Each structure stands twice: as structure tokens, then as C-alpha cells.
Amino acid sequence: MSRHKLNLLDRSAFAALSLHEKNAYLQNVVKEIQAVRGEPYVPLDKDALSRLRRFYSRRSFADLRLNSVKDDGLRQSFSSLAESIHLGEVKRIITHETPSSPRPVSRPAPLDDDQLMFFVPAVHDAPVKDDLNLMDIAPFSLSKTVKDRVLRYELKDSIVTIEGGADVGLATAYDYDIFINMVSHLAAEVRDYTIAYKKGLRPNVPARVYRPSATELLKFCRRSLGGKQYLELEKALDRLQATRVKITNLNEGKRRETESFPLIGRFRVVSRTQQDRIDQVEIEIPTWVYDGVVSPDGRPSILTLNPAYFLIARPLGKYLYRLARRTAGDGEAFYRIDDVHTRSGSSLSATKFRKTLEQLVEDCKADPLPDYDLEIRPGTNGKILHMQKRKMADVTQTALPA
Description:
By secondary structure, this protein is α+β, with helices and mostly antiparallel strands. Helix content is about 40%, strand content about 20%.
């Protein structure tokens, strides 16, 4: 038995949240507790949220009114959740103490995921894009804990180095969702400009700076609107701005040209809420992104992603989806596991990475990645990762009841 520490808001910070934010925050806490225990996520209903709100504010078990809960299982569940919140930790069973079961690869969508607020659709409905040139490597850290790592990829025709800031570290796979939002926003602006231009109008060229609200960013990335998400947003922007990509092109193995650029340009917080959380930000789009999307030949260097990409809960899963989208496309692609290890930037040893990858592929049988099926196959020089676009017939078949 081990213990998982919960990073909970104190009672004063919880009290400052709105009712909607309190409910979203509690749902996320319960989701984390259930994930640690290896239990399926079961959202709280209105009555359960009301009980837990009162308990969280006062830490009095009497507020749970357990005597009024007739179902023994539900009563035990309430008591267990409250105990975890009260202690600030979750008792976790060690993996070898219980039979293994597939871990979810994706997280559930937020409760209000399909209820777009009236000021969000301009961003949320934009086609999800990603920069084409960085999709076959991981331009982000697969870890949240290592701050000062430098990622170095020695590819066939270039050397790519990704370095984070000394104080904030590398951008993570989850931070990179905001980068995708920036590219998607610009792609939508280019689309609207092109349509207006073809109609004979004189539209303004897409701006190099855009001002999303924190709510727009979170909804686009399909995250809940809890208080913790707003607190993490500014840290994510710091890491994105500090993370620089350096590409040295090679000509017959010799260095030819080096270019360095940030994932995002300058940003500033335009306004904050009364709780001192980000309300609106201003982000400068780097020249390399702007020129790649606002392409003079009309063919931007971007690919469309499945919006379910944002629900992938494992950083390695996010990287593999991007790799499959870039290389398999509408067909299939093969990579030696050693090559996947190198391109992922993972700090794990080759043996541990192989086991981690094999477990992810196994878990994908029950909870597959969007669009693509993964399979480990034997190869001449070691095992191979096979990635194939899922056929529509397969999607239809899996949707039918057994």
C-alpha cells in the first residue's frame, strides 16, 4: 500500500470560487481520486456535489448526512472520498498487490464539453491544426517533473535541439495544446480572409497577435473550468515562451544552417479576475508559425488533428498520435521501437521505454487512440511499432453492441 498526495485548494481559495467552478473542481478531485485507486470515473450528481461542497468548506463529516444515504455502496463511497479530501491523500494499492487491468488512455470529456459558451465558438470551432515540421518528434517533455532537460534529436537531414528555460523548464505535452490553439486560431483567420478576398472584399490580413480569454483556451483544449486549471495556465505560457527549438540542417552530414525560434512569442496578461486568475491574455505569434500558416502559395504547413487528441491522458499517447498523423496519414507507417524511443525524447532507458510502449499499445485495445490502431510486431532488427488509420467500417463495428 502506498499513498498519493492530493494537491488541494485550501478552504479560503475554494470559497472564492463560483458555484460552477466549485462543482468542476470537485469533479476533478473525484476523478483524480478514482484514477489513483484504479476505479472508473463516475461523475457526481447534483446531490453529491451539494454534500461535498459543504464538507469541503467546513471539513465536517456531519455535512455529508451519510445517515440519509440508503445505498450501502454509495454511503461507503461518500465516506471514502471525504476521508481522502480530509487527509489530502489517497491510499493506493501497489500494482503487484492486485491483478493488473488496462489503464484508460484517454480522459473523459468535461461535463460541459458540448455546451459552448456564446463567446467561445470562434476558437473552439476552428479546425485543429499542428505544425507539420515538428510532428515526427516530440517538441515537448513527456515528463512533468524534469525541469532542466535538453532534448536533442539527430535526424537524417537535421539536428533538432529543444531547450527549456532555466527557471521554468521545458513545455509539456499538455502545454503544447495551447500552441495548437494558437496555430488553429491563425488557420481560421486565414480561412476567413481567403473567403472574403474571393468575394471581392478587402479583408484585413490575419494579425500577428491574438487575445484569447482563459476560458476560450481551456474549452478549446477540452479541459474543465476549475480554479486549478486557471492557475496552471500562466505557468504553461511561461514554459511555452521559454522553450526554444533549434534546427541545424545537414548537407551530406555537414552543418549547413542553424535556426532558433520559440514555441510562442511574447505574451502578457491583459486582465485578471477578482480572484487574481488570468482572464484574458495576449500572445504574439512567432514569425516561423505565421509564415508557415499564412503561406504565399496557399498551402500552409499544417495538418488537421482529431479534437479527441486533447482527451489523450498520457504524454506518450499524444506523441504517438501526432507521429501517426504525420507519417501514416490515411494509410500505415512502421517504426522500430528504438527509433520511436529516440524521437520521443523520453528519459526512460531503452528497456523501460519498450515496456511502457508495449503497455500503452495493450491498453489501446480497450481504449484506442483517435483514428489510429497500434500494434507491436516482430522485426528483423527488433520489434516494430505498426500504426494504421482506422477504417470507417471498423469504427462502425466497434460502436455496435456486442
